[in-house]
Each structure stands twice: as C-alpha cells, then as structure tokens.
Amino acid sequence: MAQLGRILKLANRGSNSYSSLQSLARLYSTAQYENIKVEKKGDKQNVLLIQLNRPKALNALCNSLMSELTKALQEAEADKDIGAVVLTGSERAFAVGADIAEMSKMTFETVVATDFPKLLRVDFCRKPIIAVVNGYALGGGCELAMMCDIIYAGEKAQFGQPEITLGTIPGAGGTQRLTRAVGKSKAMEMVLTGNRISAQEAEKAGLVSKVFPPDQVVGEALKTAEKIASFSKTIVAMCKEAVNTGYELTLAEAIHFEKRLFHATFATNDRKEGMTAFVEKRSPNFKDS
Prior knowledge:
By secondary structure, the chain is an alpha/beta fold. The protein contains 13 helices and ten strands. It has helices spanning 2-12, 18-27, 63-78, 100-103, 108-114, 140-147, 174-182, 184-193, 199-205, 217-229, 233-246, 251-265, 269-279, and strands spanning 36-41, 47-52, 84-88, 93-95, 129-133, 136-138, 150-154, 158-160, 196-198, 210-212. The strands form two sheets. The protein has a six-stranded mixed beta sheet with strand order 1-2-3-5-7-10, with helices on both faces. Strand 2, helix 3 (63-78) and strand 3 form a beta-alpha-beta unit. The longest helix has 16 residues, at 63-78. Mean pLDDT is 90; it is low at 1-25. Belongs to the enoyl-CoA hydratase/isomerase family. Pfam families: ECH_1 (PF00378). Keywords: Fatty acid metabolism, Lipid metabolism, Lyase. This is Probable enoyl-CoA hydratase, mitochondrial.
C-alpha cells in the first residue's frame, strides 16, 4: 500500500511528475511475477536486478519461473535505460536445477514435442548478464549460471551437474558449456559422478570470475554492472557479440570477425565521442548511437 500511495501522490502532482511515475511503475512491475523479483538498481537506475524467488523449492526451475525470467529479460532488453542485468537467487540457493516433480511426469514424446528445456535460456539478451551464485547452483541452475556472461560466487557456493544420479544427462548445455569453461577432464568428472565443486574450485578452474563473502557478492556484482552500464550500450553489445561468436569459431575466423566489428565501431557516434573525450581529457558522454 505504501508503494501504491507513492504512485498516487506522483499522479496527483500533474504532468511534471509523469516521468517519475513511469519509473515507479516499471520499478514495481514485480507485482506481475510470482517466482521472481525484479528491481532497478544503481545511482542511475540502469541495472536490473532479477532474483529467483521460490525459496521453499530452493529456486527449482519450474516452467512458470523460466517463463517469467524470459519475460523479465525481454523487458530489460527493450528498456533503453538498462545497461546490464544481475541475476541471483538467495544465500541458500541460486537454483537447484529443474523442478523434478514437474519433470518426472514428462515422457519422451513430451520432451521432444516441447523441445524441453527450451524455456531455459538467456542467450537472446544482448545486454550483459552477471550471475550471482550463493549456495547451490546444480543441474539447470549451474547451466543457467553458465549461460550468463560473468559469474560471481559467494564463498559457500557449490556448482554441480548431478543429472547422472537421476538417470539422465544435462540438457541445457551442461556437458558443453562446462567443458569449454573448465576443460574436458574436470567437466567429465563432474557430469559422470555428479560431484560438486566449491566456489574456490570453480574460480581456480575458470568457471567463476571472482569469489566474495556471501553478504557482499550481490553488491559487488551491482558495482560491476553499473560500470558496464556506464559505457555505450551499442559498443557493449558489440563487444559481447565478439566474445560469444568468436567462442564458437576457429581462431582465424574469430579474429576476422572481431576486426569487422572493430571497424564497425568507427561508424558510431560513441566511438568518436570516446576518443574525443580521451584527447580532451574529459569524461565521455555516450549516447548509445
């Protein structure tokens, strides 16, 4: 009710408060979600914090949660104010994987017809996504974290692909992204045994960028996200595309692709502004064009 009261007060102030009213309406759009929380963060409100919110199920990835996550990321993609996204869970669990109660009822025909788990994806989002992992990131939860661009972990985080213990295999990139992140031997050990690795092991193996105390990791991720969001969104998207596309190519092909995108930056106003600001010893004023 307090939030509604603030909105009504702004509405009663007249048209001068319309932009603020719009901002609050976007901020409180969490009301449309049942399984996630969404909030704008940062001094410039240019970072979207998405929190998986099924605490009793340790954020198990049911179909409705995955649909809501997709919708929230689509909204972030369309919001010109948002420059980066932070995706997290709770201190107890990022996500423990797919909702087994839901998945146990599926048949071969069902999973093929629906291309399950088709809904578990974030790769359509051109804006950088930082995954913040506290507690468990298992199965689909580990796969979801690996779909993001950067992973920060709390000191007590655990990563694993335990599908083998359920009579199946990872189905959302676990055998592929994990191998590319930590190498064949470590990935093979994890997927064939279902064993977990700690945050410290994950950082050493290259799966995680940084490890922080559990109560600090979200704040540190938001700082990084704010820094990213301060740059040209156009150039950030091109940089992300260069890394992701090159990851799938040979080195020669990737370098060629990178050079073409590098050349393309010279057609943007932000490249000109960035270099002009450097020469003039001032902060750049990027316009995302």
